[in-house]
Amino acid sequence: MVAAMAGDHSVRGSTLTLREVSHRFNFEGQPLPVLDRISLQVGRGEFVAILGPSGCGKSTLLRLVAGLDTPTAGALLTEGREIEAPDPSRVVVFQDPTLYPWRTVWSNVALGLEARGLLRTHRERIEDALRLVGLTGFANAYPHQLSGGMAQRAALARALVNDPTLLILDEPLGQLDSLTRIAMQTELVSLWQRSSFTALLVTHDVEEALLLAGRVIVLSDRPARIKAEVVNSQPYPRHRGNPHFVKLRREVFEHLGLEDAW
Amino acid sequence: MSSVIDEVPRPSEKSGFGFFESSATRSLIGGLSVAVAWSIVAALTAFWPDKPESDWVYTGGFAIACGALALALALAAFAGVRFVAFQRLQRVAPWLFALGLFLAAWEAVTAKLGLLPLPFFPPPQAIVEVVIDDWGRLAEGIFASARLLATGYFLGAALGFVTGVAIGWSRLAGYWIHPVLRFIGPLPATAWLPLAFFVFPSSFSASIFLIALATGFPVTVLTWSGVACVKSAYYDIARTLGATQRFLVLKVAIPAAMPHVFVGLFMGLGNSFAVLVVAEMLGVKAGLGWYLQWAQGWAAYANMYAALLLMAFLCSGLITLLFRFRDRLLSWQKGLVRW
Ligand SMILES: Nc1ncnc2c1ncn2[C@@H]1O[C@H](COP(=O)(O)OP(=O)(O)OP(=O)(O)O)[C@@H](O)[C@H]1O
Ligand SMILES: [Mg+2]
């Protein structure tokens, strides 16, 4: 679907550079350091996953990439230019689906096109995106009529409609059952392969990270530092039972300090 | 399975006559009881002579009207056996029944026994008399009140809404308007009455100002709080999708604030009724409020009751209308309060 929007087959994802990015919040009058000198280089069309313990600062990092907040120190660049404000080329799928309750699923998905005045010319994209996430029959439903997983799929559709060059995913499949989840993972990979955007995925699921991403960044506890980087150059589709996959999975668990857990 | 169970009508919970088996039988018996109650009103009015030296012109007419209603209700009850549509009357049957009993008792203690002092407690036919004989002035009053209320309310609601959005959205507007609102807003609009009546060129425009003020304050405050309460995540979403400021205000802040705005509109409507009546009594010399005042001055209590009844119907009707409008506009909300 997105490939059709792209119109050409060259890699069109944007690059992303993080230079010594640190971030601090104020929490009850005390400074709360959340990110500690994160440096990262993401190439055009790369798929990078970020793993880390809960509350370490993953969502904070993604907000900085989206341009919703500015870092306390360091710089974020895309295509060599500093990220200063949100831009529709960098679309976020937030951890919480946050659909607008006063809009139907269809017009929630239409949000980005409407905001940019593209609704009239690109209307058919909405149908495509809804079909992709399996919500065609629910176009006229209101968010309170959806299940948690359906809301999350609607939020995914709302992002995909905009044909981003950098897709930022904050646990986008967190609330899906394992079957839908596997289907959506496959869908995400083929989508990424077809339209070759750059993808940054935060997940709690080690297998998901290794199934989807070419590179897995492991973060430490808060304040988050980059603890390790695991490269997975296996071709797609990947299989969980593959010995190399199992080896990588063990490696990632060790980096997370959970070598005995699995 | 459960849907099948849900579809079985359970009117016993809805109607007061829950002890009969089939819904058709129940509807028939309920309807006939109501018809009997109204027949009693009719018979009591017609055959029990009014207390001597009282001259109620419409005693006979009132009796005939009640009798006709009883007949119609009986026909509807029989129709309910064949046509399901008529069974809907069942829901209001207990109320119609109670109303019949109330009228019968009222008729008995006023016109028939004279237990309540006149002219303070006229019988029902006296109120019928007012509506029939004085309908011209009542209609004039309704028209005058409606014109005043509509103008003031729409003006106040529109200004309040715009002000509320401005305060909620713009820091500068908040800085300048908020203190004024805090200082002047809580003052009852009626306190401005003496001032308004000599500052404004006409009592009509003064009253519009007062009604608009009474409506505007709650609408402003609630619109503002609605806009201030919008989840920041809603803005984040729109901003990452390329929304302009204009889009954020019109398509995010305002729709998200609408439930609050409606609370303000309801409060404003209630306030506007109060101010309308006071303004009409003290300044405008027209409208239902003025009619009330006039009736009281001439000890025409039947006229007063008639005007009060009309006012109750109109105010309640307007609130209902506003509820309908909200239900339509906010159909996306779960668990709306039904009026
Ligand atoms: N606006 C804020 N003000 C103060 N503290 C904040 C704010 N936002 C986040 N934090 C703190 O920053 C830390 C990191 O939060 P963040 O949401 O980035 O975690 P996360 O890695 O995404 O966690 P999870 O995996 O559970 O989603 C947390 O300790 C949180 O309390
Ligand atoms: Mg998070």
UniProtKB/TrEMBL annotation, chain A:
<keyword id="KW-0813">Transport</keyword>
<keyword id="KW-0067">ATP-binding</keyword>
<dbReference type="GO" id="GO:0016887">
    <property type="term" value="F:ATP hydrolysis activity"/>
</dbReference>
<keyword id="KW-1278">Translocase</keyword>
<dbReference type="Pfam" id="PF00005">
    <property type="entry name" value="ABC_tran"/>
</dbReference>
<feature type="domain" description="ABC transporter">
    <location>
        <begin position="16"/>
        <end position="246"/>
    </location>
</feature>
<protein>
    <submittedName>
        <fullName>ABC transporter</fullName>
    </submittedName>
</protein>
<comment type="similarity">
    <text>Belongs to the ABC transporter superfamily.</text>
</comment>
<dbReference type="InterPro" id="IPR050166">
    <property type="entry name" value="ABC_transporter_ATP-bind"/>
</dbReference>
<dbReference type="InterPro" id="IPR003439">
    <property type="entry name" value="ABC_transporter-like_ATP-bd"/>
</dbReference>
<dbReference type="InterPro" id="IPR027417">
    <property type="entry name" value="P-loop_NTPase"/>
</dbReference>
<keyword id="KW-0547">Nucleotide-binding</keyword>
<dbReference type="InterPro" id="IPR017871">
    <property type="entry name" value="ABC_transporter-like_CS"/>
</dbReference>
<comment type="function">
    <text>Involved in beta-(1--&gt;2)glucan export. Transmembrane domains (TMD) form a pore in the inner membrane and the ATP-binding domain (NBD) is responsible for energy generation.</text>
</comment>
<keyword id="KW-0472">Membrane</keyword>
<dbReference type="GO" id="GO:0005524">
    <property type="term" value="F:ATP binding"/>
</dbReference>
<dbReference type="InterPro" id="IPR003593">
    <property type="entry name" value="AAA+_ATPase"/>
</dbReference>
<keyword id="KW-1003">Cell membrane</keyword>
From TrEMBL, chain B:
<feature type="domain" description="ABC transmembrane type-1">
    <location>
        <begin position="142"/>
        <end position="323"/>
    </location>
</feature>
<feature type="transmembrane region" description="Helical">
    <location>
        <begin position="180"/>
        <end position="200"/>
    </location>
</feature>
<keyword id="KW-1003">Cell membrane</keyword>
<feature type="transmembrane region" description="Helical">
    <location>
        <begin position="304"/>
        <end position="325"/>
    </location>
</feature>
<dbReference type="InterPro" id="IPR000515">
    <property type="entry name" value="MetI-like"/>
</dbReference>
<comment type="similarity">
    <text>Belongs to the binding-protein-dependent transport system permease family.</text>
</comment>
<feature type="transmembrane region" description="Helical">
    <location>
        <begin position="92"/>
        <end position="109"/>
    </location>
</feature>
<keyword id="KW-0812">Transmembrane</keyword>
<feature type="transmembrane region" description="Helical">
    <location>
        <begin position="148"/>
        <end position="168"/>
    </location>
</feature>
<protein>
    <submittedName>
        <fullName>ABC transporter permease</fullName>
    </submittedName>
</protein>
<dbReference type="GO" id="GO:0005886">
    <property type="term" value="C:plasma membrane"/>
</dbReference>
<dbReference type="GO" id="GO:0055085">
    <property type="term" value="P:transmembrane transport"/>
</dbReference>
<feature type="transmembrane region" description="Helical">
    <location>
        <begin position="206"/>
        <end position="227"/>
    </location>
</feature>
<dbReference type="InterPro" id="IPR035906">
    <property type="entry name" value="MetI-like_sf"/>
</dbReference>
<dbReference type="Pfam" id="PF00528">
    <property type="entry name" value="BPD_transp_1"/>
</dbReference>
<feature type="transmembrane region" description="Helical">
    <location>
        <begin position="60"/>
        <end position="85"/>
    </location>
</feature>
<keyword id="KW-1133">Transmembrane helix</keyword>
<feature type="transmembrane region" description="Helical">
    <location>
        <begin position="28"/>
        <end position="48"/>
    </location>
</feature>
<keyword id="KW-0472">Membrane</keyword>
<keyword id="KW-0813">Transport</keyword>
